Amino acid sequence: MTKKKDIPFFKALLYNLPKVSHLTSTPLTPFPHMAKHKPMCLVVSLLVIIGAVNWGLSGLGMLIGSNLNVVNLLLTQTLHLPVAVESIIYLLVGLAGLAFGGMYFGMKECSCEKK
To answer: What does pTM read for this prediction?
Structure first.
Protein backbone atom coordinates (compact mmCIF):
# COMPACT_ATOMS: atom_id res chain seq x y z
CA MET A 1 0.00 0.00 0.00
CA THR A 2 1.33 3.41 -0.96
CA LYS A 3 1.43 6.22 1.57
CA LYS A 4 -0.24 9.47 0.56
CA LYS A 5 3.06 11.39 0.65
CA ASP A 6 4.63 8.89 -1.79
CA ILE A 7 2.05 9.65 -4.48
CA PRO A 8 3.31 12.10 -7.14
CA PHE A 9 1.81 15.57 -7.04
CA PHE A 10 -0.46 15.29 -10.09
CA LYS A 11 -1.84 11.91 -9.06
CA ALA A 12 -2.53 13.27 -5.57
CA LEU A 13 -4.30 16.22 -7.19
CA LEU A 14 -6.47 13.86 -9.24
CA TYR A 15 -7.28 11.73 -6.21
CA ASN A 16 -8.45 14.78 -4.27
CA LEU A 17 -10.82 16.06 -6.96
CA PRO A 18 -14.52 15.68 -6.12
CA LYS A 19 -16.23 12.66 -7.59
CA VAL A 20 -18.17 13.45 -10.76
CA SER A 21 -21.62 12.17 -10.03
CA HIS A 22 -25.08 13.67 -10.17
CA LEU A 23 -25.93 11.73 -7.02
CA THR A 24 -23.52 13.51 -4.69
CA SER A 25 -24.20 16.75 -2.92
CA THR A 26 -20.53 17.78 -3.18
CA PRO A 27 -20.18 20.98 -5.22
CA LEU A 28 -18.17 20.32 -8.37
CA THR A 29 -15.87 23.32 -8.22
CA PRO A 30 -12.22 23.44 -9.27
CA PHE A 31 -11.37 24.50 -5.69
CA PRO A 32 -13.77 22.60 -3.40
CA HIS A 33 -12.26 24.09 -0.24
CA MET A 34 -13.43 27.54 -1.40
CA ALA A 35 -17.07 26.47 -1.71
CA LYS A 36 -17.53 26.97 2.03
CA HIS A 37 -16.76 30.71 1.80
CA LYS A 38 -19.20 33.53 1.19
CA PRO A 39 -19.12 34.93 -2.37
CA MET A 40 -18.32 38.47 -1.17
CA CYS A 41 -15.25 37.21 0.70
CA LEU A 42 -14.04 35.46 -2.43
CA VAL A 43 -14.50 38.64 -4.49
CA VAL A 44 -12.66 40.72 -1.88
CA SER A 45 -9.81 38.21 -1.73
CA LEU A 46 -9.55 38.08 -5.53
CA LEU A 47 -9.44 41.87 -5.81
CA VAL A 48 -6.74 42.06 -3.12
CA ILE A 49 -4.64 39.48 -4.96
CA ILE A 50 -5.09 41.34 -8.27
CA GLY A 51 -4.08 44.58 -6.58
CA ALA A 52 -1.02 43.04 -4.96
CA VAL A 53 0.18 41.49 -8.22
CA ASN A 54 -0.41 44.76 -10.08
CA TRP A 55 1.53 46.76 -7.46
CA GLY A 56 4.39 44.26 -7.58
CA LEU A 57 4.58 44.35 -11.36
CA SER A 58 4.31 48.16 -11.39
CA GLY A 59 7.24 48.41 -8.98
CA LEU A 60 9.27 45.95 -11.03
CA GLY A 61 8.44 47.93 -14.17
CA MET A 62 9.71 51.12 -12.54
CA LEU A 63 12.99 49.40 -11.66
CA ILE A 64 13.61 48.12 -15.18
CA GLY A 65 12.23 51.20 -16.91
CA SER A 66 9.06 49.87 -18.52
CA ASN A 67 5.32 49.93 -17.89
CA LEU A 68 4.21 46.64 -16.31
CA ASN A 69 0.99 48.04 -14.81
CA VAL A 70 -1.35 45.25 -15.91
CA VAL A 71 -4.56 47.19 -15.25
CA ASN A 72 -3.31 50.12 -17.33
CA LEU A 73 -1.98 47.90 -20.11
CA LEU A 74 -5.12 45.79 -20.34
CA LEU A 75 -7.85 48.40 -19.98
CA THR A 76 -6.42 51.63 -21.36
CA GLN A 77 -3.84 50.59 -23.93
CA THR A 78 -5.21 47.26 -25.18
CA LEU A 79 -8.99 47.66 -24.91
CA HIS A 80 -8.89 51.47 -25.36
CA LEU A 81 -11.33 52.06 -22.51
CA PRO A 82 -11.50 55.48 -20.86
CA VAL A 83 -9.18 56.21 -17.96
CA ALA A 84 -12.28 56.44 -15.73
CA VAL A 85 -12.71 52.65 -16.01
CA GLU A 86 -9.13 52.17 -14.81
CA SER A 87 -9.83 54.53 -11.91
CA ILE A 88 -12.94 52.56 -10.95
CA ILE A 89 -10.89 49.33 -10.89
CA TYR A 90 -8.31 51.00 -8.61
CA LEU A 91 -11.11 52.24 -6.37
CA LEU A 92 -12.64 48.75 -6.12
CA VAL A 93 -9.24 47.22 -5.31
CA GLY A 94 -8.69 49.88 -2.63
CA LEU A 95 -12.11 49.24 -1.07
CA ALA A 96 -11.43 45.50 -1.18
CA GLY A 97 -8.16 46.11 0.63
CA LEU A 98 -9.97 48.00 3.38
CA ALA A 99 -12.61 45.26 3.64
CA PHE A 100 -9.91 42.59 3.72
CA GLY A 101 -8.09 44.46 6.47
CA GLY A 102 -11.33 44.69 8.42
CA MET A 103 -11.92 40.96 8.04
CA TYR A 104 -8.31 40.05 8.82
CA PHE A 105 -7.82 42.24 11.85
CA GLY A 106 -11.33 41.65 13.19
CA MET A 107 -12.43 45.29 13.14
CA LYS A 108 -15.84 44.12 12.02
CA GLU A 109 -17.59 40.92 12.92
CA CYS A 110 -17.32 39.23 9.53
CA SER A 111 -16.81 35.57 8.98
CA CYS A 112 -15.96 34.34 5.53
CA GLU A 113 -17.28 30.85 6.18
CA LYS A 114 -20.91 30.10 5.43
CA LYS A 115 -23.05 29.18 8.39
So the answer is: 0.63
